[in-house]
Amino acid sequence: MNHTRRQALSAVTLAALVAAPQTDAAQTTAASGQGSEIKGQVTTTLVPSPVSYTALLPPDYDRAQELPLLLALHGGDGIAGFSFMPATVRAAWQSGELAPCVVVIVNSGRSFWMDWKDGSQKWETFVMQELLVHLRSNFKVAKTPRKTALIGHSMGGLGGLRFAFKYPDQFGGVAALEAAIEPTFQYASINVRNNFFRPAALMESFFGKPVDTAYWAANNPAHLAVAQAARIQASGLQIYLDVGDRDILNTYDGVEFLHRILWDHGIDHEYRLVRGGDHWGVTVPPRFRDGMRFLTRQVFSEPQEDTSQLANRERINQMKKAAGVDPAPLRLPLPHTKP
Predict the structure, then answer these.
(1) What's the pTM value of the predicted model, to 2 decimals?
(2) Structural domains of the chain, count
(3) Which of 117, 279, 291, 327 reaches 20 to 30 Å from 60, CA-CA?
């Protein structure tokens, strides 16, 4: 089945779903002012098909002209591990932490959100070439990258960073929470404490058997951040990293590592090491709302420059000059974090 035919079938499938009467539960949700849900699916030959998703529509969606699109990527525990997301999104809408937007939760299983080395599953290609086209064709969402963002947890945080760093001109921002990143540039030096939850057979399913270390590097956010630094900087991509200091999977090692890389290479971002935060648990939903607040402020709205300190900054800059300190650089030129 060719690409055009697949897209046509996808559109027909969703059109039928949208046109169908809502269930009583969906009508109750919509009537309560919390928005509504649409279950959809995409038929494809790129990954196990059909791919199911849930689209969360904000209140007053029917009267909207064009809304931002937020793609939500679940972790390695699958869609069940994202069960908190609909309620979290609705609470964020109600509080104003999340701007009105269409939030799409995609079910990918333990896919790593990437094209597998053996070609058996091509999740990156599916998302970039089919899923985004499908969503932009069937929902009232912006067609521009600036109003398209990613938010993900664990494996989904890793996948979101990979998408954003590979295609910085295709997304306005990414919020990665508890991203399951290894704190190294070398596959051979991965410490068991950072990969004990990923058996060798699992890694071989993604990266080849034996693991193709060059392919791993080409899909590793740390390598991508260095290789793509100029493109990421030029794109204005907004980046949010969050990890708990009690993460049971030790992912704080990798996220801290990536934070250092972004800092050293002049890539603007926001980083939070959350006191008492674990990989799962009660701290995660409110932290997602913090990530949504960042995306609303930096991507879905026009960022407002703080002009209240212009005079003070000029005074401090004069002090720097008098002391022989260059007032221009925000960071010391120490890009030591590189392969």
Answers:
(1) 0.88
(2) 1
(3) 291
